[in-house]
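New to this. Help decode the following:
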Amino acid sequence: MEAAGGAAPGTYGLIGRERELRSVQAAISGSGRGVVLFGPAGVGKSRLAEEARTLGEDAGCASVTIFASPVTAQLPLGALAGLLPSDSLVSDLHPARLLAEIRSSLVARAAGRRSLIVVDDAHHLDPVGAHLLGELIRSRDAFVVMTVRAGEPVADAA
């Protein structure tokens, strides 16, 4: 038996977002590169992103969730620092090498599967982190799900 919204019994189901979930699932399963969940604070973007992560994992993706914040926005690659291999000596790495280390770490974590990166509050990414995510999206090295609060400036990923 399933609970409302298709959730397994005893879990918190997501109700009323079937259309959005179908769109996300189609993007993950197809040739999509990512989705942006955009809207005002408190409408459930983070919850929908978490459900997108679950859909990706069910489709065989290796996932990682990143939580950006005003604090991480002040540090180059602040929100993405957890993706660096633990044996990296960050102080010895040039910024371009840091980007390569993170990309390599994601590939290793995926172990041959498609990478799915969820970025909650992507409007708080620093410019270097936004650039890296843009590169991962353009190269199709990762499918990216981002939440962005309406009215907030977003770093250019060019």
Notes: Residues 1-11 have pLDDT under 50 and may be disordered. Residues 95-110 form the longest helix (16 residues). The first strand starts at residue 34 and ends at 39.
